[in-house]
Design a protein that fits this description.
The complex is a heterodimer of chains A (442) and B (341). With 442 residues, chain A is mainly alpha-helical. Chain A contains 14 helices and 8 strands. In chain A, strand 7 and strand 8 form a beta hairpin. In chain A, helix 1 packs antiparallel against helix 2 and helix 2 packs antiparallel against helix 14. The longest helix of chain A has 40 residues. By secondary structure, chain B is mainly alpha-helical. Chain B has one domain. Chain B has 14 helices and 2 strands. A two-stranded antiparallel sheet of chain B has the order 1-2. In chain B, a hairpin with a 5-residue loop joins strand 1 and strand 2. The chains are: A mainly alpha (442), B mainly alpha (341). Chains A and B meet through helix 2, helix 3 and helix 14 of A and helix 3, helix 4, helix 5, helix 6 and helix 8 of B.
Chain lengths: 442, 341
Amino acid sequence: MDNFIAARSQMALSLGFHIIFSCIGMVMPFFMAVAHFLYLRTGSINYRNVTRAWSKGVAIFFATGAVSGTVLSFELGLLWPEFMKHAGPIFGMPFSLEGTAFFIEAIAMGFYLYGWDKFNPWFHWFTGVMVGITGVVSGILVVAANSWMNCPAGFQYVNGQFIHIDPVKAMFNRAWFSQSLHMTLAAFTATGFAVAGIHAWLLYRKKNVLFHRTAFKIAALFGVIASILQPVSGDISAKFVAKTQPAKLAAMEAHFKTCAYSPLLIGGIPDVKHQKVNYGIEIPGMLSWLVSGKFDTKVTGLDQIPKDQQPPVAITHYSFQIMVAAAGLLGTIGLIYLIALTVKRKWLKRSWLLLLFAAATPIGFLAVEAGWTVTEVGRQPWIIHGVMRTADAVTPMPGIQYSFYLFTMVYVSLAITVIFLLKRQINMVGLVYDVNNKNGDL
Amino acid sequence: MLYIVIAFLWLAILFYLVLGGADFGAGILEIFTPATNKEDLRRTAYIAIGPIWEANHMWIIIAVVIVFVGFPEIYSMISISLHIPVLIMLLGIIARGTAFTFRNYDAINDKMQAVYTRIYIYSSFITPFFIGIIAATAVSGRIDPKAQGFLQAYIFDWLDWYPVSVGLFTVFLCAFLAAIFLIGEVSHKPSRQAYVQKARLMNLGLIIFMLLSFRAARADNIPMFKWVFGSTLSIVAVVISFVAWIFTWYQIANNNVRLTRLWAGIMILTLLIAITYGHFPDVVLLKGGMSLSLLSGQAPEATINALGSALLTGGLFIIPSLFYLIYSFGQKNKSISVHKS
């Protein structure tokens, strides 16, 4: 394996792993806080049980997310030292703030996990809410750093030198808002559906019905609301990408030829060699309309991007298709659930609704991974868009493939262990948390 | 503002070494604990460390962010030349952080516990060992950016007696801190005695590897002796550290928890001043006399100012809440042990 490819693979693996844990780590505390709030208001032991069960999941995911995040802060240098040498001082501002947010999160986590029955109940609840808030703030800050790579700002690049550095401007680069909004909603959607899906499956199997019904309702509501808002944020993002990174948009859409009335492509297999797409469905004029609101807008195609500045088209296109399809599916399930909640209450009792949610368990995270691939692969060959190439940033140390294999082994075994642990947590629900069980809470 | 940033960097490393170190130490101590007492050690450590352990490990994130934002050349130099030890340290951090949590949160208590525990123990040893190696190599003057050949460029600069002795010194430092800390966490007399015994053993290891580090430094022409005894300030630090060390043991004999910890803290603090002050502001010394300094290779002023303000603001939030966390759980745990006795 080529050193450069190995470095990119290791980075992709590390981020792809971390993103799941950080999403869950930042969103699940909110579910937990809602259940906890309901417990404090109603005194129902069932809410308390859901809260406690979730808090253990949060602890496991937070710990794994914290270490994989620590690893990333070093990996940026281990794999891309040339990039960090120049970019560190420019885009480091959100990282230094994130350090604080993350620290507060860890402190709040300590209070929350170990503070049961030791503090004023509302103070204890508040620390749980803080875990969620600081988690989301951390997420937004990290995405702001990433958006700088897509939309560099806060410096001038003159003769290979980075001068007039303004870290605050770099943090509030033009992409930070659209990207952070999109990622935050994605995290809520993915985690909401994943958690709701697991509880839906157990409900369908009629296990500890009271417990799982409560848990399902809370998680589903979060996921559903986020999934319905997500298309709006997707639209903002697409319009923005069209303006600032035409090459990425062209690759997402496998849009080879610049033209007015550009069609929106659904599916299809891009054939880069012959500059065309096979087996795709085209909706005429739709792409132009989506990026600008007008059908006759010219949308830049790959033909206007120099060959050595084009991202890999196939991966970007497929990932984008997967993301949109997955998000569309979740949005639809979300709408169905909303209809069930408001108009067709009898649907709520139907097992197909539960099965639908159960089947959707991994789909949100599929969308998250695909979306992340779109933004990262779609930026290639640049590590700092238009300024520094990824290939020029890579470490001179040879043999990165071995470190990539090692990390693959570590992350695969960690993933297996976490799944194993979750399964055991779930198996214990009947014993520990079912209110019908006389043993009650541990 | 630059000095504020440097102060935060130094404090973050210090806190990581003391708080995170005590945390690693609890794992290391398990190596030296007979199987029959392991459960007791585990429970004590869990109650004492549990609430703050995640926070303890945040200091390294603060430190690394300060380095890559404020001192990018140092960050990229260490990332390249010390890639392998940093990588091993990271594997240690991953293994330890997850094993500690898995062990405490696994819903079923079965033979998987032994697996988590083994990983936890080994990684508690490996992580500080490699932190010591990285720190020692950085100042050893053996890093050669122009080195040819894989072994010369990426292995031999750190795989040597001096870094290894400092690595082991760091391991015993962590274990010593943990033992001192845990003495105060038990009220039961025989188990208290067992921790005192462990602290003695770890203290012995600490002295042995400190002497070995000096010996190895001399063999490699590293002016460690001059750094530690070369200026008035560092000599004063050494003397205070020595006095604090004696008082630590005096207070252990006296059974005074608070003063034991205070003196041990002062001892480590001044020891670290003595070790780092001598070569300040140079933190990476390269082959051929070149060096990377905190005072000349830093990021542009705008970045340092922004970083400094971010750290000051962050500190306003972090320090009080961290203090309250440690304080309140200290109180609660005390009341629990009073209840039990």
